[in-house]
């Protein structure tokens, strides 16, 4: 980069890059963390969103099919046991994933292929309220380093890291990337050792909504803040739903 | 079924949606779903996938409407930002399934689209953006527009334009800085 920007310009441009979604996954995780912790930067991103939304004026409207509203209406309707908003929260994962089905099945196949898997045999497809969310993460060279599966019914998070992570100079930590921006620390990962975590209520809510997961490498003997990686982000992957 | 609402009317409907008003939620849907599907379809290029994502978007709107602050954002900006980000998330999670569109073709698509803005109340914003974009070089204006319309990264833009990644970053970063200076005036 030969452009000589001052710090203010750099942050402003970074806010624009984040709003436009130009950044690589790793850069985006770092920028989202900044957005989550720095109100001024968050305001800059919001400012860009306001300006850039005007581009949408050049996009022709397309009427959705008549069946879409009834599905949304049903998914947000109140039930006997909740206020509708909660129902929508859970049903978000249970619908509308046709475009991801092939990729998700591939992710599960990879999960099963991991050596020494701790993940039990896949439960029957129909479990009450159970929707599994999966993600695979790889280093830049494509080497797989971690597969996760999250059971939204039980709050259990299954981790199957490979030994590839062991070569890193530091301790790998897992992060959830929130849909509205920002990240949430899950915890440290032991390379090569599969594990199962029962997430707390707060973490399980974030895990249910997260759009991606990421791995940072933190210096040994340190614990990063809950919402900001202290070390470099070495891998990330979108969460896909079954 | 597209209803025409003013910005203030849409903001009120969105605010009431945040309070759990299902009739208001329906009004928001009817006034904005065609515009948001246009945004999704522009990025995802697949009707079924775009409608799946649109369904997710309105479930998000139902859950998050209480966080909408009309003092901080226009309702359509808030909705378009959600729609675009959700579409991009889905695009990137299904990247191998995506066919690429040359930048030139993307310009044609964007320019050919009629500017039917039944709900975009921020016409001043549109004019200001267009004025400021007109001050940029054609190629820079084109790639920034494509970045928004197609939701693609620096890497993809560089490949499409067949230029080094550093060159693409330099074009856009300088373009964004000029754009922001102009927009803030």
Concise summary:
The complex is a heterodimer of chains A (242) and B (185). With 242 residues, chain A is α+β, with helices and mostly antiparallel strands.
Task: Summarize the structure in words.
The complex is a heterodimer of chains A (242) and B (185). Chain A is α+β, with helices and mostly antiparallel strands. Chain A has three domains: 7-54, no CATH class; 64-95, no CATH class; 97-241, Immunoglobulin-like. Helices cover 33% and strands 22% of the residues of chain A. Chain A has helices spanning 7-20, 25-37, 39-52, 68-76, 85-91, 101-113, 201-209, and strands at 132-138, 144-151, 156-161, 171-177, 183-188, 195-198, 212-218, 233-238, 240-241. In chain A, the strands form two sheets. A five-stranded antiparallel beta sheet of chain A has the order 6-3-2-1-9, sandwiched between helices. In chain A, helix 1 packs across helix 3. The longest helix of chain A is centred in the N-terminal third of the chain and has 14 residues, at 7-20. Chain A starts with 6 loop residues before the first helix and ends with a strand. Chain B has 185 residues and is mainly α. Chain B folds into two domains: 1-99, RNA polymerase sigma factor, region 2, helix turn helix motif (Rna Polymerase Sigma Factor, Chain: A), CATH 1.10.1740.10; 101-185, Arc Repressor Mutant, subunit A (Orthogonal Bundle). In chain B, 72% of the residues lie in helices and 0% in strands. Chain B has nine helices and no strands. Chain B has helices spanning 7-18, 22-44, 47-64, 75-93, 103-112, 123-133, 138-150, 154-161, 165-183. In chain B, helix 1 (7-18) crosses helix 2, helix 5 (103-112) packs across helix 7 (138-150) and helix 7 packs across helix 9. Chain B is globular, with a radius of gyration of 17 Å. The N and C termini of chain B lie far apart (38 Å). Classes of the chains: A alpha+beta (242), B mainly alpha (185).
